[in-house]
Structures are given as C-alpha cells and as structure tokens.
C-alpha cells in the first residue's frame, strides 16, 4: 500500500472507499484528510477506525473514535439537503438539519463530522486571525529607492545588465515617449535562474537607478502569513503602485505563489493567479508600473501569466563561466584582501558555483583572518574560505538528495 502523505498522523476514520477498493479516503479528528492508494483491494470499509502513520494504515478499535467530540466550522455553501462546511483547512459535506436555520457565513458547532448542533455566530470565525490590509500594511512591502545600490554591486554577466536596462530601466525612464510613439508597454519581466545568481539584487539596482518605488513580495510569505487575504493584498499593492510616478512590483519565488492551475490545485493558489491576471490586465496606459518576478522553476508558473501583456519577457541568469567567476571574485574582494591572491585558481575550482557562493568565500576568509588577529586576508585564508564553502555545498546537496529520496519513496 502506497500513502499519499499529507503530514497528518494519528487516529482516523475511513470516510469512503473506491469501487475497486484501491483508494481509501481517511478523515482525522482535526478535520483534515488523506488518501491511501494500494495495488491490492483495501480491507477497510466506510466507518472503520484506523491508526495512520507515515507509511501504514492499521485497524483500530471502533470505540477509540469519539462520537461526541465537537468541532467548529464555517458554512461555505447551502443546498436543500446538504451543507458544505469549512473545518480547519478542509471542506466537509454533511446533511442539512431541518430544525436549525442556517446561512452562508454562519459559524456552527457540530459533532462526528456529520451532525450540526447549533449556530455559534452569525459571522465567520476562523482559526487564522486575518490582519487588516491598510496603507500601513502596504508600506511594509515598500523599499526606498534612495539606496546605495549600483550596477557595480551586481556580480553577474554584463549581458544580463544590458538586457535588464532595455526591458525595465528604459521603459520606466521613457514611459511618456514610448506612449506617444504608440509602443505596447512592457508589463512583466520574468527573471529565471538558480538561487544566488543575483536576480533580486538586480531588480533593486534598477529601481534605484530609475528612482522607482520598489515593492518586494515574497511568495512563501504571502502563502503563509496572508492566507485568506492574499488577493486583497495583491490588489491594493497594485493600486498603490499605479499612483506612483514610477514603480516596480517585485515577486520573489513566484512559482510558490502562482502555480499551474488544475482540478487538483489548492483554491488559494487559483484565487491568487486570478488576482494577478486581473491586476496585470488592469494596468492603464498612463500607469508607469513594471512587474518583475523571479523563479528557478518557470515551468511551474501558470501558463496564463506568460501570455502577451503579462510576463511575456524573460531574462535568464545563468551560472557564471570561468572568466565571470574570476571577475566576481576580484570585484567582491574586501579592502583587507592581500594583493596577488590566486583568483584564477579558485575560479577553476568553482565550476557551477553561483555568485552568492563565490562571495561567501570572502566571508569565510575574513573569519580566518580575524581569528588569527590579522587585518589582512592572506592566501591561506582565501583557500580556507574556499574549502569551507565547498563543504557547505556538499552538505546542502546531500540534504536535497535526502529530501528527494523521501518524496519518491
């Protein structure tokens, strides 16, 4: 039997079993659920109580399932004979009581995941307290354009810088002239490439040079802290940006926020994608706003976001080649670095390293120098820093491989 594991273990009850007995749907006391798949027909039937672990489903005594345990949920949909209730993070369908007046949005109490007892509140009460999305909230996502960032801080290919200037800096600077010509405005640019290749830094540099208001939005942050309000937050950020003379809205790791929509997609993800599409399509010609997004998994982004008028331009950030690696090492070396350090040798030994990893060598080297009470980074410190970062890369790769093996098992 193979388990499509959802992170929930403990006591459960079989809700349904497929006709061929190879798919078993299990519900838990907290309202969540999971599904078992098996090559052989399941021995369980609807209503059976089971113990659930990461890789097993075993029979449990029926009396272990509490029949009087109450729950609290919010009514999402009403039919003549059934009610759809949101309990925790899942939806449950149960019979509609004849003697209790119900409305969509009511907070209700019930037992056994099949019986509604009473209305607790006319309004929805949810487990996650929602934060008001106001002007103060929007300001938390703004970064001042008056920073010290310049293109000299970008340790990457000059071709990337030139392309970014063409697609982002120039349209922001000459917005009025391009509009008078009748050119179609560039709305969205996708930065693709491995982590640590400078995607976020380059976006900040362009915002600084263009004197544009910069909004930074983290995909994982939106999905965690702003679950339930993500669409409103995105809508208000776009509205605020439209009122600026120039603005860049920057989405970091957009693949975690706007994944490909399907029948199996999470409802929150589908709503976010819909809001992004509406916001980008809602730009007026006189609004000087460009949306930048980063990802190292462009294939996971919803295809509708990559159609003309949205993220239809792309800049790829490759891992630096040998000459670029040497240039990055020279450019990023601290003031306290000794002369004639073996940059060429280190560049030869760091194939497939990202710019962020190369810069990290100097941090490690500086630690060696400080421990020896020196203000100068010597060759031995430099090579020691190389060894330290190389060891970290090996450990991280081992962790990634371990996680992949865990997923495939």
- Contiguous runs where pLDDT drops below 50 for at least 5 residues: none
**Secondary structure category:** alpha+beta
How many beta-strand segments? 17
- Coarse morphology: globular
- Determine the number of helices (DSSP H or I, runs of at least 4 residues): 11
Average pLDDT score: 83
Helical fraction equals: 25-40%
Kindly estimate the percentage of residues that lie in beta strands according to DSSP: 15-25%
The string of secondary-structure elements, in order, is EEEEEEEEEEEHEHHEHEHHEHEEHHHH
Strand order of the largest sheet: 1-4-3-2-5-6
Termini separation (Å)? Answer: 12 Å
- Rg, alpha carbons: 27 Å
Main sheet properties: 6 strands, antiparallel
How would you sum up this structure in a few lines?
The chain has 409 residues and is α+β, with helices and mostly antiparallel strands.
